[in-house]
């Protein structure tokens, strides 16, 4: 995949942007708590505003990419991020809430652009492996980004940390704009001129099934993070939570690389169902060494599940609306991340920490079942006109 022209540079620059974007919530949290000396609840409000903006902005920015072009959208979002992060240290809390929502709404769409470009730069046979590599990139960003911010906060002021995160986001967005990767294949170059197909033609049962499973996957993953912390806090070993999370992330990287090398894909509903099943018994572990072992199974299935979701979206979306479809995928995943922690938190409060793993796993199973039932209602003929060559609707 790295030998595909332009692929290595795209993944390298987007990794910088995605790593910084995964760290933005942590940077703002530390700024509110340490810089403004407010409560963690206040910091959570800023984080929620930013996350809500990202969730709502995904389809908007994707539609703009479809109609206005990639560089225009990147220029607008980069300028907004420059203004926001430079002004963070001088904004009162109330204005920071509003500004965080706007910054999320117009966040540099590094993840969505990477997925669109991968779909345009690869053949149908290469795409699964390419999206597996993109999922590995995402896992690396989640491992590195927040950890770097926490380490920097120990030696730098929260203002400087926020500026550093903002600078990395801006540099990544500007780098992608300079690369200007294609978002449509050569055979799809006239898709924009042909007009946008109505949503009812592509946002049907099949696409709804994929978006549901995207939502369920991140709901599970967000819940697992909280369940890990709760389990180790009950055992008096909360300081080991970072080690368990790193083991989970490394396992996901390994799983993504293995899945990308396989010769045949697996259906998304099956991967997500297996992910839910292996997550539930992780609650049986009561100390950090066994918890490290317990999360390996979930980790190995995480990147493959995310990769198949991205692959299915790229295959089902016509070229003229691929930006909007990819934005909807990002929104579904952001919504899952936002819901997973509260859902699992309630389960932990009314039961035990093991209940958190059970709730997360059951959420994944429910999404897998729903996606499977919806996909069976989607006739294969509806997707064929948009994608020359074989189309596998076994998601």
Automatic annotation (TrEMBL):
<feature type="transmembrane region" description="Helical">
    <location>
        <begin position="202"/>
        <end position="232"/>
    </location>
</feature>
<dbReference type="InterPro" id="IPR011701">
    <property type="entry name" value="MFS"/>
</dbReference>
<feature type="transmembrane region" description="Helical">
    <location>
        <begin position="354"/>
        <end position="374"/>
    </location>
</feature>
<feature type="transmembrane region" description="Helical">
    <location>
        <begin position="139"/>
        <end position="156"/>
    </location>
</feature>
<dbReference type="Pfam" id="PF07690">
    <property type="entry name" value="MFS_1"/>
</dbReference>
<feature type="transmembrane region" description="Helical">
    <location>
        <begin position="238"/>
        <end position="259"/>
    </location>
</feature>
<keyword id="KW-0812">Transmembrane</keyword>
<keyword id="KW-0472">Membrane</keyword>
<protein>
    <submittedName>
        <fullName>Predicted arabinose efflux permease, MFS family</fullName>
    </submittedName>
</protein>
<feature type="transmembrane region" description="Helical">
    <location>
        <begin position="97"/>
        <end position="118"/>
    </location>
</feature>
<feature type="transmembrane region" description="Helical">
    <location>
        <begin position="38"/>
        <end position="61"/>
    </location>
</feature>
<feature type="transmembrane region" description="Helical">
    <location>
        <begin position="73"/>
        <end position="91"/>
    </location>
</feature>
<dbReference type="InterPro" id="IPR036259">
    <property type="entry name" value="MFS_trans_sf"/>
</dbReference>
<keyword id="KW-1133">Transmembrane helix</keyword>
<feature type="transmembrane region" description="Helical">
    <location>
        <begin position="162"/>
        <end position="181"/>
    </location>
</feature>
<feature type="transmembrane region" description="Helical">
    <location>
        <begin position="266"/>
        <end position="282"/>
    </location>
</feature>
<dbReference type="GO" id="GO:0022857">
    <property type="term" value="F:transmembrane transporter activity"/>
</dbReference>
